[in-house]
Write a structure and sequence with these properties.
Two copies of one chain form a homodimer. Chain A is an alpha+beta fold. The first copy, chain A, folds into two domains: 7-203 and 375-468, 3-Layer(aba) Sandwich (Aminopeptidase), CATH 3.40.630; 205-259 and 305-368, Alpha-Beta Plaits (2-Layer Sandwich), CATH 3.30.70. Helices cover 34% and strands 20% of the residues of chain A. Chain A contains 14 helices and 18 strands. In chain A, a hairpin with a 2-residue loop joins strand 4 (112-114) and strand 5 (117-119). In chain A, helix 1 (7-28) runs antiparallel to helix 3 (127-144) and helix 11 (382-395) crosses helix 13 (442-461). Chain A is globular and about 80 Å long. The two termini of chain A are 24 Å apart. Mean pLDDT of chain A is 93; it is low at 465-475. Chains A and B meet through strand 9, strand 10, helix 6, helix 9 and strand 11 of A and strand 9, strand 10, helix 6, helix 9 and strand 11 of B.
């Protein structure tokens, strides 16, 4: 099943590994947190750094593309073969917020290697996975003796993915001609485990909102007024409690409209994976599973839509007590969406539902962030087979299929560019995306390098198939 | 009904008013916030300041009494009449937390007079109401030509009332001999309004707890794990939502055990008060009333037990979004209790109930603060009639009866000292207890001074009645 690995690729990677890791560490030191306005300069600095690094890699074109928010980076390296297919690689250079006091063992923006793992915010999500493409294309050239890649290679690395990619779709629309590709490779997902390499075939979408409830004009005495006026903290709790029914289903009318249900074949493929609930719980850092009745854990995280509370707050949260009825309360909700769900319809359903959840005397304000669509790759797609072959060569073993519970703007690329979207990610669940002590395994990072060293030749050889393949929402 | 006011009392107050207000302002500048550990020195400084001020007033004994927490102040001024009854005045010198950014128009600890009102944290709750006793006893002496009060006057001013009086009962028990009194006067309550002077006949009790729910060991990615593990923020919301049924009743089994229901006579007296819902809502700074079905607003706040959320929190509450499942969430709850409810039984009921509210995989931790008992004064108590007469003389009009929705350690004094508890407070609902821009109306503050100037003589004359009166939980 797996092909012979290339000793030239191995040797090249070994020679350049130290410099590659030094460069990645330099990038990780830039705290490019797109959600925090005070980090805007750092996000810009991250884009400039990456564009310079891509030029250094050999990309003849490497540009910083401004947006109304944080900038993206675009690069291209044309093939010297006029018939070469065009591949667009997607990633992001912004990261989640992180602070030492959240539970990090070391500064999240001072990368350290411990026990073969590189710890830093963005190590896995997503700077590490963007960066393996730089050494990958050099290894591809060196091993094949080419002076330009076997494919027309393009990269688009956005700066607002962790903030819901508010300007990405417009950017893609604006530059659709330059971004045009036969296939899109998204490097912002994970694998099953270090021992079970997998290709992801879909990501969930994401709708996010902040709901703010206003009660009294200011905090009032809970003795003098308690029991006789509506309390916004109680109201926000009752709203959140009404999100789910007793079966763990989202209880918002219309929320499930259009959901593409799992096929029997997909449920079988999921069930074939070596899922160990105890081990998964350790990765999830959780004490128990919990969710929608009638679905397995993998089905719940990969193929079912959710409603989760990301944050809730109101009133006095400090030391001691303060006997008040708070004037306001808020909740930050995120909804993961699956193929068939429509962002606009979900927002409409949430708004209609929420309006009925609060008592008289409480003002409701809901703000949605721009959302992210769900997407799915058909299991029989020819370019997916190229990815599988390249991975099997690098990992020296069979590659299986998963989906990703997280979200990315892949569906926008698919829709605007009309190109099929494939996923190539080497992160594993224990890498701690969005959590303290995020890390990437160095061995896997270099397997990512190796996979891309093989992939461009394979895709070029199978371009005819890839170009005629179809892609859509349904499996 | 009302007796003739005393021109000597008026003249005395007028002469000393400016110095009295300057002294009060000096005390209000000390930020004696008992709930904040970093203010512990300020609370001690407040006790020292008060003891010195009471000595300056003329109290032969004025001592700072340490506790394991914040100190109390004790003072006594024996009567020169060997048959005089003994009165113990209760108040507190600690205040609620306050910060300019909570919505204060001026620094909460820099008192300012605007439009006849003195604005500062503690102006009404409770420093202003403690302090009117200093000028009051001087006016009493001056107007009666006495060199010592007509009653043996004692003051106990605690420093932890806003933190639930955790050490007050033990302090009272320790010093029960020195605190022994024929009657206790609590100056930590309010009146109906500036136009409708009232005497309070009862306070609600208070049980407070913080409930902390622990889920994942750390924040985890809501995409990778969302929908498949229990979310502590969702769990805390569902717990809070389960606090009340759809009729606004507290849904904790056993919570209402022993509650002394309102009598028809009390409901009539409440209904006779000039209650204006629109005006009350303005005072409550709220948009609507809300509460237990079958009870009026006054009944809800004065005579019904409640469950209120004082604070709720968990996960990301900052700007932008963070797609996590938070590792923990908390809620601070307070329960107002009425006569007949037992603190220990309420805590037991809450613990038993809460244990059933969280899903598997969520750890529950509940911490109760020491509580405050509810109390009630019988409407026909002879000492209550002395208070009514003194107030009617000061206010020149009829005095009505209310209760207080708030809580104080009056019931402990009643229980430990075996003395009836009466309430003398001149604050009004718009004074903003526990809220930004707390204030006291200067005219009412001086009516408090005047009332006590009359009260000690009246109580001394009617001591025989007071001494034989009974007091208990039930009206």
């Amino acid at each position: 099943m797996s092909q012979t690995p290339d000793s030239a690729v191995h040797a090249y990677i070994e020679r350049h590994r130290a410099a590659f890791l030094d460069d990645l560490a330099a990038w990780l030191r830039i705290p490019s947190v797109s959600a925090q306005p005070e980090r805007a300069d750092d996000v810009r600095r991250s884009a400039d750094w990456l564009a310079a690094a891509l030029k250094e890699t050999g990309f003849p074109v490497a540009e910083v593309w401004p947006t109304p928010g944080a900038p993206a980076v675009y690069a291209e390296w044309p093939s010297d073969d006029p018939d070469a297919p065009t591949v667009l690689v997607y990633g992001h250079h912004d990261v989640q917020p992180a602070a030492r006091e959240d539970g990090w063992d070391s500064d999240p923006f001072e990368p350290v290697v411990r026990d073969g793992k590189l710890y830093a915010r963005g190590a896995a999500d997503d700077k590490g996975q963007v960066f393996f493409h730089t050494l990958g294309v050099r290894a591809h050239l060196d091993a094949t003796g080419r002076t330009a890649p076997a494919v027309n290679l393009k990269l688009i690395v956005e700066g607002e993915e962790e903030s819901g990619s508010p300007h990405f779709r417009a950017l893609v629309e604006e530059h659709a001609d330059r971004l045009a590709a036969d296939v899109v490779i998204v490097s912002d997902t994970g694998m099953w485990s270090a021992d079970t390499p997998t290709v992801c075939t879909g990501m969930r979408g994401l709708a996010e909102c902040e709901i703010r409830l206003e009660g009294p004009y200011q905090d009032i005495h809970s003795g003098s007024f308690g029991g006789a006026v509506p309390n916004p903290a109680t109201a926000v709790a009752r709203l959140v409690a009404a999100l789910h029914d007793d079966e763990g289903r989202v209880a918002i009318p219309g929320f499930y409209d259009g959901v593409v249900e799992l096929t029997d074949r997909e449920r079988e493929l999921f069930a074939e994976l070596p899922f160990d609930e105890e081990r998964w719980l350790r990765t999830a850092k959780s004490h128990a599973t919990h969710g929608e009745t009638g679905y397995s854990t993998l089905e719940r995280i990969w193929a079912r839509p959710t409603a989760e509370v990301n944050g809730i707050g109101g009133g006095y949260q400090g030391a001691g007590s303060k006997t008040i009825i708070p004037s306001s309360a808020l909740v930050k909700l995120s909804f993961r969406l699956v193929a068939g769900q429509d962002l606009g319809q979900v927002e409409k359903a949430v708004r209609a539902w929420a309006a009925h959840q609060v008592p008289a005397g409480i003002q409701l304000d809901i703000r949605f962030s721009p959302g992210t669509r769900p997407c799915l790759t058909p299991l029989d797609h020819p370019a997916l087979r190229s990815v599988v072959r390249a991975m099997e060569r690098a990992f020296q073993g069979p590659v299986r299929f998963t989906r990703e519970g997280g979200s990315g703007p892949a569906a926008d690329l698919q829709e605007v560019l009309g190109a099929p979207v494939l996923f190539l990610g080497i992160s594993i669940p224990s890498d701690g995306w969005h959590a303290p002590n995020e890390k990437v395994e160095l061995d896997l990072l270099l397997k990512g390098v190796e996979t891309t060293a093989y992939l461009w030749s394979d895709l070029a050889e199978n371009a005819g198939n890839a170009e005629t393949a179809e892609s859509g929402d349904a499996p």
